[in-house]
């Protein structure tokens, strides 16, 4: 029996109709493509009216297949599949073809774009006729969740889930959870103390009965898929037994080796070879840094071991590899600081009194290396003037094109702190002042009133080469003041560089492990930039916080909570439906050559010795189709991507090529068959 | 007056290309090119496969036999395949098939393998533009007409390809 295909060509307002003659495409499909019973164009196919139209056509005309020529299936495949389902048509008998992203938006010639759209529709029609009804597979969801990254976003996600009663495994690469927020003194715009709002959350996570923390650990391996991931965690040896340690800190106190702490203290302070990064660390269990420990260096010392009252120091501790089963994964790995040495004109690393923003945060912090005093590199002199340079490594084609989103506000915060703690003059050198969240603009106004000076312009250079007597011994900020339109040289004692937020250097690597992609820069890609900001293209893997793009604490917290809500939704439902795109082997056709056996990266193909045939273990197959393409006997079928379907799609896509090129007698082009046209 | 298609010897010729794009990286790169309104010639018709590893040599032969002037296979960068390592298998197959097609007189520009991550809309668009111009210079392939004259050739070729593929997949 011939299929009855409905073809629906969307205008998408003018997004498609502006470049593709959609009426012509629909008319043409109705008149020329075999088995097309109905062909229509409509302003917005995805609108409720558009959906209703398709649903009604299916019922009224008894359509057996549906083609929607509109946007990317990654946006609306679900929508149109649901429409089919509502009309009692199996959702897998619907095919979308992407004439917006792949045609109208990338084309400049209307006639040519229309030809392309026709070919795309022809391809979809030929394919859809070969599609088969499928049933989505139901997978149980393991209620445990893995959260990677213990910054504020990860902590929020962890607490939401744990408070709801579900088990959470939290993996943090550093010795303590807390992330960057633990390093700050005050937080804008309210200026509440960062530790005061963060540390309660940290200890809550640390003590929560539903949370298992793995600090000083990394995610090593991920396998499985939504509902039933298997993950392996690499827990690095701390050389301190977590069960015995009480966190008294005697070992730290007695350790004779002091080194510069360029992680937590941003290089301004010191730590010991055995250390906890900061006093409120969670867990409060120290780690031994093997690169600075005297025992690891020279085989002598072990003072900590001798002095530990509980005998917790364990030099024989080994790295552990722990395997866990989880249903979902939330990635909240945050950001890393731009290396200011990449912009030598600002003198960082060469001119002593040029600081980074993170150094300055530590300096302002009462628990930090200067006890909260703002002083020059000599550790005692208070500056009389401070320059804060915005957008260092941001909004610059040579470094990062993105806006780091928080630096303007952090610069204002710094301005306030300088004026509060010293009598220095503060200058902000900005390109545009970006204060567009709740209470941010008010904070800016406040700083204007407090007397912070604002100079608009990208700083060209920071130098110590004085030209005038008043510049002697100072750092001179050379800038074109774009509001007055002239060059200015402003001598100051201290310069703070608002270094950019960058993605984690290993973001891509971690993304590959979890099957998610990132932008060119390295920010993780969400499923939809507006409508689905915490889901990713891989079901069961979510992102939260700054690993997805620069943002402030409130936005990071919101995403952490949102990701947790998404996960909870799945846990509560108990099962998720997954695409039945999997391979299967027809026993009668299999010759038992076993070529496919080694091709599957998931070992989803087993060999039945008795029958001498191979078999796909459906629950392990992820549907890549590599084995399908390799089987010499053609015994493997890739559901929804069968040979028949793809070959038909190829023929359809080339309807105009083989129509003109093939010998007339052989013409099997759809164009030659003038069958049903219904609309 | 200069022709919009530059100094190509066949400026009027509009090649027809088939592109097999993997769902996870390259299809998304094409989506991104659209979202970013990057322009490229409308000559490639895209067929979505879950992974570049799904591309059976038969698909390529069929496309050429049906009148395509060139075929592009595009997938995730090596090491970044959504299915771990399947694009390495794509690579092996691609070079095997290419070797055979070259022996049959196909110009290398007509069969290309491209890596484009989901973030590389521009790169994918550039690769398509480049391939379209290269194939435009070569002119039409006109295999279908030739096949018609010698109907057995496609089958013969398919058989050889299969044999090679079998040998290749086994010898890994
Ligand atoms: C100078 C400065 C001042 C700021 N001040 C403010 C402010 O006052 N108010 C405000 O709202 N925002 C402020 N921000 C922004 C703020 O830092 C971020 O919004 C916030 O840190 C984002 O939290 P997060 O959890 O996404 O990331 P992070 O805080 O970066 O936390 C990520 C965590 O993940 C861990 N991790 C990374 N990779 C891995 C891995 N592979 N495996 C395991 N763990 C991993 C890290 O060790 C870290 O603990 C400021 C930013 C800067 C640069
Ligand atoms: S490759 Fe095909 S014929 Fe060989 S064992 Fe696998 S399914 Fe059977
Ligand atoms: S399609 Fe084949 S190779 Fe791919 S995951 Fe499934 S069984 Fe393995
Ligand atoms: S999924 Fe893109 S090449 Fe395998």
Task: Walk me through what this model shows.
The complex is a heterodimer of chains A (679) and B (172). Chain A is built from 17 helices and 34 strands. Chain A has a five-stranded parallel beta sheet with strand order 10-7-6-18-29, with helices on one face. In chain A, strands 20-27-21-22-23 form a five-stranded parallel beta sheet. Chain A has a four-stranded parallel beta sheet with strand order 2-1-3-4, sandwiched between helices. In chain A, helix 2 crosses helix 3, helix 5 packs across helix 6 and helix 5 runs parallel beside helix 14. Chain A is globular. The C terminus of chain A is likely disordered. Chain B has 172 residues and is of the alpha/beta class. Chain B is built from six helices and four strands; from the N terminus they run βαβαβαβααα. Chain B has a four-stranded parallel beta sheet, sandwiched between helices. Chain B is flat and about 45 Å long. The chains are: A alpha/beta (679), B alpha/beta (172). The structure holds flavin-adenine dinucleotide (FAD), iron/sulfur cluster (2 copies) and FE2/S2 (inorganic) cluster. The site of FE2/S2 (inorganic) cluster has 13 residues of chain B, from helix 3.
């Amino acid at each position: 029996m011939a299929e009855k295909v409905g073809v629906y060509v969307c205008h998408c307002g003018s997004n498609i109709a502006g470049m593709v003659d959609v009426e012509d495409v629909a008319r043409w499909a109705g008149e020329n493509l075999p088995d097309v019973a109905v062909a229509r164009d409509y302003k917005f196919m995805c609108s409720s009216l558009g959906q209703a139209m398709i649903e009604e056509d299916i019922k009224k005309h008894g359509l057996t297949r549906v083609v929607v020529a509109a946007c990317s299936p990654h946006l609306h495949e679900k929508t149109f599949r649901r429409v089919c389902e509502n009309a009692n048509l199996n959702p897998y008998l619907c095919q979308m073809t992407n004439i917006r992203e792949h045609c109208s938006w990338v084309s400049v010639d209307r006639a040519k774009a229309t030809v392309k759209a026709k070919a795309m529709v022809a391809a979809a029609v030929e394919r859809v006729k070969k599609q088969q009804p499928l049933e989505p597979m139901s997978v149980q969801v393991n209620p445990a969740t893995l959260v990677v990254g213990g910054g504020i976003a990860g902590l929020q996600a962890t607490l939401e889930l744990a408070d709801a009663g579900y088990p959470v495994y939290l993996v943090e690469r550093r010795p303590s959870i807390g992330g960057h927020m633990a390093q700050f003194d005050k937080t804008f715009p309210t200026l509440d103390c960062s530790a005061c709002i963060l540390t309660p959350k940290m200890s809550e996570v640390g003590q929560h009965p539903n949370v298992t923390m793995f600090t000083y650990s990394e995610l090593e391996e991920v396998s499985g898929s939504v509902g039933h991931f298997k993950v392996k965690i690499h827990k690095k040896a701390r050389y301190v037994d977590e069960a015995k340690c009480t966190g008294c800190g005697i070992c730290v106190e007695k350790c004779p080796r002091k080194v510069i702490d360029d992680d937590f203290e941003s290089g301004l302070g010191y730590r010991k070879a055995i250390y906890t990064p900061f006093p409120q660390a969670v867990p409060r269990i120290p780690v031994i840094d093997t690169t600075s420990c005297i025992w690891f260096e020279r085989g002598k010392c072990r003072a900590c071991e001798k002095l530990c009252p509980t005998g917790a120091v364990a030099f024989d501790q080994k790295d552990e590899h722990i395997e866990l089963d989880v249903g979902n994964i939330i990635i909240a790995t945050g950001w890393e600081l731009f290396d200011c040495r990449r912009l030598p004109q600002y003198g960082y690393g060469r001119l002593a009194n040029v600081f980074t923003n993170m150094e300055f945060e530590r300096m302002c912090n009462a628990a930090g290396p200067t006890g909260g005093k703002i002083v020059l590199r000599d550790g005692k002199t208070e500056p009389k003037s401070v320059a804060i340079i915005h957008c260092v490594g941001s909004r610059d084609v040579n470094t990062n094109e993105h806006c780091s989103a928080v630096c303007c506000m952090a610069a204002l915060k710094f301005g306030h702190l300088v004026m509060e703690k010293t009598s220095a003059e503060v200058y902000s050198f900005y390109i545009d002042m970006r204060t567009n969240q709740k209470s941010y603009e008010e904070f800016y106004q406040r700083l204007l009133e407090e007397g912070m000076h604002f100079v608009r312009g990208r700083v060209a250079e920071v130098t110590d080469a004085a030209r005038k007597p008043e510049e002697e011994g100072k750092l001179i900020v050379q800038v074109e003041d774009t509001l007055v339109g002239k060059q200015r040289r402003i001598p100051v004692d201290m310069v703070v560089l608002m270094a950019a937020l960058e993605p984690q250097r290993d973001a891509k690597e971690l993304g590959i492990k979890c099957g998610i992609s990132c932008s060119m820069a390295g920010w993780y890609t969400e499923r939809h930039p507006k409508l689905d900001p915490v889901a990713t293209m891989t079901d069961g893997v979510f992102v939260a916080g700054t690993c997805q793009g620069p943002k402030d604490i409130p936005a990071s917290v919101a995403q952490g909570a949102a990701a947790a809500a998404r996960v909870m939704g799945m846990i509560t439902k108990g099962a998720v439906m997954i695409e039945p795109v999997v391979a299967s082997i027809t026993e009668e056709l299999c010759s038992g050559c076993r070529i496919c056996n080694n091709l599957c990266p998931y070992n989803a193909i087993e060999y039945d010795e008795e029958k001498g045939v191979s078999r796909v273990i459906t629950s392990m197959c992820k549907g890549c189709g590599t084995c399908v393409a390799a089987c010499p006997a053609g015994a493997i079928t890739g559901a929804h991507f069968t040979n028949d379907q793809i070959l038909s799609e190829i023929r359809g896509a080339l309807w105009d090529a083989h129509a003109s090129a093939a010998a007339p007698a052989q013409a099997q082009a759809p164009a030659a068959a003038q069958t049903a046209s219904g609309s | 007056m200069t022709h919009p298609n530059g100094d190509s010897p066949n400026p009027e010729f509009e090649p027809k290309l088939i592109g097999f794009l993997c769902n996870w990286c390259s299809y998304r790169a094409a989506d991104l090119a659209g979202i970013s309104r990057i322009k490229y010639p409308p000559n490639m018709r895209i067929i979505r496969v879950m992974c570049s590893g799904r591309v059976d040599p038969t698909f390529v032969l069929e496309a050429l036999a049906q009148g395509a002037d060139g075929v592009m296979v595009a997938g995730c960068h090596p090491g970044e395949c959504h299915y771990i390592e399947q694009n390495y298998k794509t690579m092996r197959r691609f070079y095997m098939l290419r070797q055979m097609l070259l022996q049959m007189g196909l110009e290398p520009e007509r069969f290309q393998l491209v890596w484009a991550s989901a973030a590389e809309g521009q790169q994918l668009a550039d690769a398509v533009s480049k391939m379209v111009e290269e194939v435009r210079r070569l002119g039409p392939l006109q295999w279908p007409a030739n096949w018609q004259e010698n109907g057995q050739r496609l089958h013969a070729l398919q058989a050889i390809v299969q044999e090679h593929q079998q040998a290749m997949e086994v010898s890994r």
